[in-house]
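User: Sequence recovery, please. Input:
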């Protein structure tokens, strides 16, 4: 990876303001007409909701939203007989793309789901476009079974998709990978000019994740609550937390697990929560009541949940895999461990659960880091400023 790409990918220093924030949009400038092509898949749904709800007026953007669900419950396409599910999803996505963008006259597209344009690049040729990604497909496939990825039965079709991705990435006015890991794949795997890459985390809505500072659990006479949030329980390493819960010699703690999967536990200290949605009051309440956040994931491209935990003032224990190494500062805002390393997880958890002072110091540092790097409103302004410059507006 070139020096230019490395510099673009380095997280900003706490005391170094982003240059884009110093160039506010002049009131006399016409708004930038941007079509946002967003997805509701897993973490991309959180990105979409945060951008939709937090797009600040000072960004000078007139938005058009094309939201890709890939499936609509009870829809006509979904009820068609004989068609494979994958083909139905492709048809549904194209209908949603047409429904969202229609005949809108746009200055630029901001694309969070490039796959929707496979075989339909005419949408991209209409105007300049930017792409935001948490990983390239090759990086996602490298996780294999963890993400349910298996070798394709149609290698020719995969070759066509790769060529389409190559063209999309190389023709984009600017690319906003979430992490240095994803940026490296764009340069090394696709030959993208590093000068057109700007690492930009998606950010979170700090207003939703700001809670009154609480006394330590020990001072409040409460158990130290450890929080885990991961829809895919095994991939996210939830089983390692259950092992810790069984073996730790510490007292006066609780483990709260938020997941969509069934979890079996016989411990009265382990509480499992289902059906919680992104940014929901019930989910935010768990963050507000927690003392530590732990995500010993075996496979991840990034971690929005960890960013939310940091905004809530929690120290984070996170596996360093994919792009997660960018999320926290090891030893300052939390701890990084190797994926699947149960003993390291147990050691770090025992340390944090048993040391209120360390928890509070790391939690305050995590909140400060979030305000600097992960405020979605600031990151939107930075992104739009870079996009304006890239397309000459």
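Assistant: Recovered sequence (393 residues):
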């Amino acid at each position: 990876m070139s020096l230019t790409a490395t510099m673009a990918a380095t997280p900003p220093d706490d005391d170094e303001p982003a240059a884009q924030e110093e160039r506010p949009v002049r009131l006399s400038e016409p708004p930038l007409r941007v079509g946002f092509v967003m997805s509701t898949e897993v973490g991309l749904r959180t990105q979409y909701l945060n951008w939709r709800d937090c797009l600040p007026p000072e960004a000078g953007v007139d938005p058009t939203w094309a939201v890709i669900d890939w499936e609509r419950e009870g829809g006509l396409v979904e009820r068609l007989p004989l068609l494979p599910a994958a083909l139905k999803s492709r048809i549904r996505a194209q209908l949603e793309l047409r429904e969202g963008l229609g005949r809108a006259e746009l200055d630029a597209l901001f694309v969070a789901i490039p796959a929707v344009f496979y075989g339909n690049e005419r949408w991209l040729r209409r105007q300049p476009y930017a792409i935001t990604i948490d990983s390239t497909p090759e990086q996602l496939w490298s996780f294999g079974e963890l993400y349910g990825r298996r070798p394709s039965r149609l290698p020719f079709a995969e070759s066509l998709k790769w060529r389409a991705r190559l063209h999309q990435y190389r023709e984009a006015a600017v690319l906003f990978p979430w992490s240095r890991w994803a940026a490296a794949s764009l340069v090394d795997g696709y030959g993208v000019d590093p000068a057109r890459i700007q690492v930009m985390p998606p950010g979170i809505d700090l207003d939703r994740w700001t809670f009154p500072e609480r006394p330590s659990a020990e001072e409040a006479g409460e158990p130290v609550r450890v929080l885990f949030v991961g829809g895919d329980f095994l991939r996210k390493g939830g089983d390692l937390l259950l092992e810790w819960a069984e073996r730790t010699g510490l007292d006066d703690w609780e483990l709260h697990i938020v997941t969509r999967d069934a979890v079996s536990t016989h411990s009265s200290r382990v509480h499992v929560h289902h059906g919680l949605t992104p940014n929901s009051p019930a989910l935010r309440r768990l963050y507000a009541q927690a003392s530590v956040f732990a995500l010993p994931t075996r496979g991840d491209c990034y971690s929005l949940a960890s960013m939310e935990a940091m905004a809530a003032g929690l120290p984070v224990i996170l596996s360093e895999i994919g792009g997660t190494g960018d999320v926290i500062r090891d030893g300052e805002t939390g701890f990084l461990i190797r994926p699947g390393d149960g003993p390291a997880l147990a050691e770090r958890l025992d340390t944090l659960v048993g040391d209120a002072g360390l928890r509070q110091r790391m939690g305050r540092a995590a909140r400060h880091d979030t305000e600097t790097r992960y405020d979605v409103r600031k990151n939107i302004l930075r992104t739009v400023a870079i996009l304006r410059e890239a397309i000459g507006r």
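The first helix runs from residue 3 to 9.
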